Amino acid sequence: MFIIVTHTERTSTEEIENYFEDFWNAVPDEDRDWLSESLNDREYAVGLVELNDETKTKLDSIKKSIVELFTEETNTKIEIPSSWALMEQLLYEGGWKALSLDEIRRLNSSLPDEYQIKSDEEMSRFLKCFHDNGILLYFQDEKLREHAVLDIQWFAKAFSKIIADKNHINKDCKTRLIKEWKSFNKTGELKDKVVNALWKDEPLYLTHKSEIMSYMEKLQMLVPLESSGAVSEGDMSWYVPCMNKKQFKAYFSEDKWECSSILCYRFTSFAMFVFYRLVAYCMGFLRWNVSNDGDHEGSLCLYQTAVVFDHNEHTVVVGICNDEIQMQVLQIKPLAINKKVSIEIGGFLENAIEELTETFIGTNIFHKGFKCQNNICNENDLSFTLESELSKIKSEEMQCKCQLLERHVINVQRTLGFWEKVITFV
After folding, report:
1. Which domains does the chain have, with CATH numbers?
2. What is the pTM of this model?
3. Under a CB-based contact definition with an 8 Å cutoff, are residues 238 and 224 in contact?
4. Residues 154-168: tens digit of each pLDDT
């Protein structure tokens, strides 16, 4: 890892030192050791507006560190067949950004027989190996296995063009499509013609649009929206969670709704990143239906910090607040929450979070627990009780962990019972 603080021309040495001190204070205790080890003193403060001798020296030092890092003998190396190495060289000499599997096969057949990859099965292993090592993108899913993205930076830039702010969009989005772009910038609901406009200056993105959007969907960067009026590709639209700026208001009053306890996953880092992908996962992979808002500005209950779903005849809220991903199941009274359904929902979401964080470095990425209040995404609710602590309580009730003046009694079995099978203590 590297930490590089830029644009420091008019910043004093003391201010830079204070910045780094604040940075390390903000790092959670459990992450400080591995982060320090990963950095190994690769912390830099450089000016970029004025490219003076001091800045040039620091930039040279950064370049040298990068070279040393990737040429150390201790770095992990992978052994591959010579035919794979030749195929890799052939792919990257051509400078292609993305290729179909048929095009890759044709390139392979141009090699001498003894150096060709011999079968489709071996070709899949070759592509998967280079995907696993971060060299290209290739998935064996039905919609994706016929193409590979060879330039990951090019792919990332395609997404950065989609989520650009108003200062970095092109003329089309500022003029003829200004209403569509403003709507997208507020709600995250992206129309196909806005994608075409944002990528207009780089036609290669439009050539590979179908593959790019499929890969972004696979990586939970966006999710297709169902459209009853869509009759062609040009009528398609997507939801991009990180662009949504609509504010969520928790309007689930106890006199109208039966509310489950609030299940929480408190993250040490990257909570918002996981939340965005979790929303796409629920909409795309789990196929949960987003509730209808009825709002004149948008018909779907998609918000910056929450999504409301209709699933299995229950209402499900998934939200984020204070580095916690929270979830709650509700029913309109006099209907009661079916605890088999809420347990199933909790299991789906826990599996999803574990899958979305399986590549994270380190342990204790998140801690599972519960809130003792009923208002989801309430920033003033600082209560949080670990599941492991609550499960040890051998009585029906316990004192909550709210602030002293707001403390009350928690029904342990009711809190746990919405999310897991509870043993009754006698």
Report:
1. 3-71 (no CATH), 82-150 (1.10.10.10), 154-243 (1.10.10), 257-381 (3.30.310.200)
2. 0.79
3. yes
4. 999 999 999 999 988
